[in-house]
Amino acid sequence: MPRSTYTEALLGPELFKKVKETRILVVGAGGIGCELLKNLVLVGFANIEIIDLDTIDLSNLNRQFLFRKPDISKPKALVAAATARHFNPSSGIDIHARHGNVKDSVNDLEWIKGFGLVMNALDNMDARRHVNRLCQAANVPLIESGTAGYLGQVTPMIKDETECFDCVPKPAPKSFPVCTIRSTPSEPIHCIVWGKTYLFGKLFGEDDEDMDTEELDKAKASGENAEEIENLKKEATAFREVRKNLGEEDGPQRVFHKVFNEDINRLLAMEDMWKKEGRIKPVPLEHEGIMNGTFATPPSRQAPSTSAPNGTAQTNGSSAQKKQSLKDQRELTLKENLELFIDSCKRLSARSIAYPDTPLSFDKDDDDTLDFVLATANLRATAYGIANKTRFQVKEMAGNIIPAIATTNAIIAGLIVMQSLNILRRLPLPSAPAESSAGPAIRNVFLRTDAIKPLGYSMPAKADKKCSVCRDIYVPIKVDLEKCTLRAFVDEVVKGWLSKAEFEGKDEDEDIEWTIFEGGRLLADPDFDDNHERTLDDLDVKRGKMLTVRDEDGKYRPVHFSICEGDAQATSPYSLPSEPPCVPLAPPAPASREPSEEPIILDSMPPPTNNVSENTPISSTTAVGTKRSAPDDGDVKGATEEEQVVKKRKVVVLDEEDDFEIL
Amino acid sequence: MPSSDPVEEESRPTKITKMDDSLDVTSATTGTSTIPSYRPDAKTRRYDRQLRLWASAGQRSLESARVLLVGCDATGCQALKNLVLPGISHFTILSPDLTTAQDVATNFFLHPDSVGSPIAEESVKYLKELNPAVEGSAKVEDPASLLVTDPAFFTTYTLIIASNVIPSLELELADLLWQTSASVGGSDIPLICIRNSGFIGRVEIQLREHSVVDTHPDTTHTLRLDAPFTSLEHHARSLDLATMDSMEHSHIPWVVLLVRAASIWKESHNGRLPESSEEKAEFKELLKKDKAKGDEENYEEALAQAYRVWGKSELPWETGQILDDDSVKNISTNSKNLHILLHTLSEYVSAPPHLPPTSPSLPDMHSSTTSYVHLQNLYKQEYQSDLKRFKRLLSQTLQNIGLEEETIPDEEVESFAKNVAGVGIIKGTPLRQGKEGKGLIVRAIEDYQYDEYDGSSTCFAMHLALLAAERFYALHKRWPGTKSKADMCEDNQQIEEVLKGIMGGKEVANVFAESIAEVTRGGFGTLPTTAAFLGGVVAQEAIKLVTNQYTPLDNTVIVDLIKSQSAKFKF
Question: Are the Cβ atoms of A313 and B58 closer than 8 angstroms?
Answer without folding.
Answer: yes
